[in-house]
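#lab-general

N.A. 3:47 PM
ok so I finally got the sequence cleaned up, no stray characters, all 87 residues accounted for. can someone with queue access submit it? mine expired

B.Y. 3:52 PM
send it over

N.A. 3:53 PM
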Amino acid sequence: MSSEDLHAPRERLTDKTVATHQAIVSLTEELQAMDWYRQRADDCDDAQLKAILVHNMNDEMEHAAMLVEWLRRNVAEFATQLDKFVG
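B.Y. 4:20 PM
back already:
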């Protein structure tokens, strides 16, 4: 993780803040990867390659869901907000 991604000096942040930052950055990357794979699959004319791209997109969805679950378990207000809108 690059310190350039942090908005405050690392030494002033708690370990929980840094871990949450890592989860958020990772979630962003997983969501971007889902989008890229979906676009590539839509644009692909080869059925076998398209199936692979969709499979990869679904893997990225799993990764994103795992990160959302980590945030739910580790950031109380995030869990509160999810409870309002999920299920």
